[in-house]
Amino acid sequence: MTETVPRFDGEQIKLGDREFVVPPLNWRRIRKVMPIIERMGAVGPSLGLTLTTEMLDDCLTLIFEAVSRNYPDLTRDELEDLVDLVNAPKLIRAIMGLSGLLQGEPAPVEEMDSLGENSTLA
To answer: Is residue 2 part of a domain?
Structure first.
């Protein structure tokens, strides 16, 4: 993967040994992932979330749509190696907040937690 100068402002988040500027979703990408956003709104870590393969795929799709705006050479497969259960919630909250899909100011990344103790892989 070649280094890319980010085209869009966003939240700086470290994935692996690289820093990424994760931008908000644009209108086209929000429309594309709206079914995922709607499904995510129905569950959350405070509800004792049990992860499914579909939910993991949905999360990666949402993250990929945002990150690829600044890093078009990054493949979904490469991103899958960088995203884990600790940084995925940080990425999703940053994306949703920057995109105007969360009410209020987005919390700084350092204050965000993981998927929680009750999270399990299905």
So the answer is: no
